[in-house]
Design goal:
The chain has 1 helix and 5 strands. Strand 4 and strand 5 form a beta hairpin. The longest helix has 5 residues. About 5% of the residues are buried.
């Protein structure tokens, strides 16, 4: 891993989540964040939500970031 690396063009990530007792509104409100090792905090910087699919339980984002997502 290279600290501070950013992709020139956004890459697409499809992140799955477990079926839990989420209403459809709660599922639609799920957000994706990346862990910033420099600040020790989760951030949405450089992450754009593209889609959310309740049937397949996935959230799709476009990002130029690398690292841990959650």
């Amino acid at each position: 891993r290279v600290a501070g690396f950013r992709f020139v063009a956004p890459v697409t990530l499809v992140i799955g989540y477990e079926r839990v007792d989420l209403s459809e509104d709660e599922a639609q409100a799920l957000i994706v964040r990346a862990y910033d090792t420099a600040t020790g905090e989760w951030t949405g910087d450089g992450i754009e939500r593209v889609a959310q699919d309740a049937e397949t339980r996935t959230v799709t984002v476009a990002t130029t970031r690398t690292g841990a997502f959650g």
